[in-house]
Design goal:
By secondary structure, the protein is mainly α. It is built from 13 helices and five strands. The longest helix has 30 residues. It binds tryptophanyl-5'AMP. The site of tryptophanyl-5'AMP has 25 residues, from strand 1, helix 1 and helix 7. Tryptophanyl-5'AMP binds next to strand 1, helix 1 and helix 7.
Length: about 350
């Protein structure tokens, strides 16, 4: 067995391993960057073992045009590389290439309960009023997500706030599996939801999450946007006429102001309190240009590097393929042990 698959240390504790994923269902946004990708890079740079996945099987729970899915997957890979993911240190791959995800996802469909999945707010939001028309995959989505994580015996999962409920379900699945079979096989994962921007809101409406799927492009900053587009979107972001206050509590009821302060703090690697200490008493006429400069200085170079990576799609595919080989070496033995625990006969030895 590949020793990387051995996720427990000599004391029998699960070794720290980070796993996270992003759907290649559209271009990545500032929300994906601040809530997830930037923090993926930090975990890698802390020297922790990190496994990152472009979850194309999750993307098809809603309709995807095949040519767009292919392009979005390569673009998302370019965004990871441009943001600082080093394929020598992190494992980076696309989910469909490692079949253990789908196989363990099926096992977890048999562990998770209908009632658990029916309570998921993301399903309710995405399915909307016409639940009968939603795909079965959209309903079962969280068991595949649990499989993504647990196929690596990952212990820590950095995500934005909106994924918290799915991670609680992942914990429930691990606990139920371990309990039902009398084993201590799957780790009970820790959600890692930290930083100033765990929920980046739309630039047009501070009560709605910034999202790849919002029909208005002005509502979000895309990682592929150039400097001019980034600055223009911040200049036009909705705000209120009041100056910035000197305390966070005074931002209650001012969702747009709160959002821009959080974005500034996350981009500057500081806290919202420190941002208010600097800008208290100033209006958006002076705050927005400073935020635009900061956003352009952090994001525009990422967009430029993405374009460079995208010039060579064959190289992106090669890197993803090499990542998938490494991912498979960890996940395959864990899946085989899962099948043993379940009582599947190993009829094809060797
Ligand atoms: P997805 O593709 O919607 O988003 C990817 C990551 O970006 C975060 N995020 C945000 N963070 C802050 N503000 C926002 N506006 C914002 N929008 C998105 C998400 O919280 C997420 O961390 N189900 C997951 C993908 C997934 C996954 C996994 C994640 C599949 N398997 C296993 C972790 C582990 C999803 O749809 O993320």
């Amino acid at each position: 067995m590949d020793d990387r698959a051995q996720a427990k240390d000599t004391a029998g504790r699960f070794r720290t391993r980070v796993f996270s994923g992003i759907q290649p269902s559209g271009g990545l946004t500032l929300g994906n960057y601040l809530g997830a990708l930037r923090r993926f890079v930090q975990k890698q740079d802390e020297g922790i073992e990190t496994v990152y996945c472009l979850v194309d099987l999750h993307a098809i729970t809603v309709w995807q045009d095949p040519a767009r899915l292919r392009a979005n997957t390569r673009e998302a890979a370019a965004a990871f590389l441009a943001a600082g993911i080093d394929p020598g240190r992190s494992i980076l791959f696309n989910q469909s290439q490692v079949s253990a995800h789908a196989e363990l996802g099926w096992v977890f469909n048999c562990v998770a309960r209908m009632g658990w999945l029916g309570r998921m707010t993301q399903f309710k939001e995405k399915a909307g009023k016409d639940r009968e028309a939603a795909s079965v995959g959209l309903f079962a989505y969280p068991s595949l997500m649990a499989a993504d994580i647990l196929a690596y015996h990952a212990t820590h999962v950095p995500v934005g706030e909106d994924q918290k409920q799915h991670l609680e379900l992942t914990r429930d699945i691990a606990i139920k599996f371990n309990h039902d079979f009398g084993v201590d096989f799957f780790p009970v994962v820790e959600p890692v939801i930290e930083g100033a921007a765990t929920r980046v809101m739309s630039l047009r409406d501070g009560t709605r999450k910034m999202s790849k799927s919002d029909p208005s492009d002005m509502s979000r900053i895309n990682l592929a946007d150039d400097a001019e587009a980034i600055a223009q979107k911040i200049r036009k972001a909705r705000t209120d006429p009041e100056p910035l206050p000197d305390s966070l509590a005074a931002l209650d009821g001012r969702p747009e102001a709160r959002n821009l302060v959080n974005i500034y703090a996350a981009l500057a690697d500081t806290t919202p309190e420190a941002v208010l200490a600097e800008f208290a008493g100033q209006g958006f006429g002076s705050f927005k240009p400073r935020l635009a400069d900061l956003a352009v200085s952090v994001l525009a170079p990422i967009g430029v590097r993405m374009t460079e990576y995208l010039r060579d799609p064959a190289e992106i595919d090669r890197l993803l393929g090499a990542g998938a080989d490494r991912a498979e070496a960890i996940a395959r033995p864990i899946l085989a042990q899962t099948f043993d625990i379940l009582g599947m006969v190993r009829s094809r030895r060797g």
